[in-house]
Amino acid sequence: MKALSQQRRHPLAVLVLMVLALLLSGGLYAVATTTNEAKAQTESYSAQDLEEGEKLFIANCSTCHGLDGAGTPSGPSLVGVGAAAVDFQVGTGRMPMQANGPQAPQKAPQFSPEETAQMAGYVATLGPGPAVPEEEYLDVTQGNAANGAKVFLANCAMCHNAAGAGGALTRGKYAPSLMGVEEVHIYEAMQTGPQNMPVFNDANITPEEKRDVITYLKTLEESPNPGGFGLGALGPVSEGLFVWTIGLAVIIGFTIWLTSRSA
After folding, report:
1. Exposed / middle / buried, residue 65 (Cβ in 10 Å: 0-12, 13-18, 19+)
2. Per-residue pLDDT reduced to its tens digit, 61-91
3. Do 126 and 138 sit in the same domain of this protein?
4. Same domain, 155 and 128
5. 65 marked ligand binding residue
6. Residue 64 annotated as binding site
7. Is 185 a known ligand-binding residue?
8. Average pLDDT over residues 13-28
9. Which PANTHER family does the entry link to (predicted)?
10. Same-domain check for residues 103 and 152
11. What is the pLDDT of residues 118-140, one digit of tens each?
C-alpha cells in the first residue's frame, strides 16, 4: 500500500505546496507590514487630533472625496495617499479646489498648520502612504547642492526648467516654479507626485538625494543673476526673442525718425 501511494503522488506536488506556502507567508507578511506602517504613521497624532481631522475632512473634503475618503466621480480616492499628500495639497492652498480646471493652482492656504496636520493624520488612518518627512531630510545645511543639481537635471529639469523656473505642459497644464517653495512641500511633491508629476519614491530618489535637490534649489534662490535681467531663466530662446524684439523696435523707430527728417 505504501508503494502504491508513492506511485500515485504527482512529482510536482511538493513544488506546488512550497509555492502555496510562500504565497501565503508573503501575503501575511504584506498585511502585517501594511498594518504596522499605518499604525506607525498615526502614532505621532493624538486621538483628539485624529477626531478633529475627521470632522474637518467631513465638513470640507467629503463632498468630492466621499465620507470614507474612497472617492466619488468628482474626486479621487484618498485611501493610501498618506499624510504627505494632504500636507502638500492643503498646505500649499491647492486644496480645497476652487474650480475645476486642468490642474489646481497654488493659492493662500485656507487652513492653519494645525488643522492641516489634523486632516493629514486622519487621512493617514485610511491606509498606509507617504508620511510627512522628518526634519533631518529638510535641513539644507546637510545637503549636497552639486549632487542635487545632478539629480534635478536628470529627473526634474525637463518640466521645471534647469533653474526651477517652471514651464508649460500640454492641454493647459504646467510645471510650477520651485522658487520660494517651502522645503517640506518640495520633498512631499517628490514623494507623492501631485498633478502631472511622477512619484519619486525612496527607491527612485533616496531621502538624502531629495534633500540634495532641495539644497540645490535653495542655492539657486540665493544666487545672484550675473546676466542682468533673468527673463524667467527660460533659456536662450526667450533671451534671443527678447533681443530680437527690442532690436527690431529700435530699427523701426530709427527708420521712422529718418523718414520724418527727410520729409
Report:
1. buried
2. 999 999 999 999 999 999 999 999 999 999 9
3. no
4. no
5. yes
6. yes
7. no
8. 66
9. CBB3-TYPE CYTOCHROME C OXIDASE SUBUNIT FIXP (PTHR33751), CYTOCHROME BC1 COMPLEX CYTOCHROME C SUBUNIT (PTHR33751:SF13)
10. no
11. 999 999 999 999 999 999 999 99
